[in-house]
Protein: HTH La-type RNA-binding domain-containing protein
Amino acid sequence: MVPQHFYAPPFPYPADVQPYPFYVPPVEQFQNMHLVRPPMQPSWVPPQDLPNLQDDIRNQIEFYFSTNNLCHDTFLRRHMNDQGWVPINLILGFNRMRAFTSLVDTNYILDAIRGSELLEVQGDNVRRRNDWMEWLLH
Structure:
């Protein structure tokens, strides 16, 4: 097969640049080529490869419901319903929880809380296990 040469037209501005020929391969040359894509690397680490992820999630949410934090956190206490429940979506909006929500879904986070001695889960709500009524704002 003989390469095809094309002639480039002269530039529209006056200069000392001379037109030059360039090579364009025929399309038929690429028709039977099979392109091999390199294997994709995951952009995030799967949860099973992070052994302490559930512990980190549970510890962070336990901190939000800890005595020391609830003494000062009127925002969280204002969002407790009359039974002390707080929607998990409210907690997932907190700055430190956003790091976890980019890795795992809400069910994974709720499963992490279920192992807590301080917290209990009902549906998509979380509260302190035993003394939730002391933290209600009346």
Q: What stands out?
A: Residues 53-64 form the longest helix (12 residues). The two ends are 88 Å apart (CA to CA). The domain at 53-131 is CATH 1.10.10.10 (Arc Repressor Mutant, subunit A). The chain has a mean pLDDT of 80.
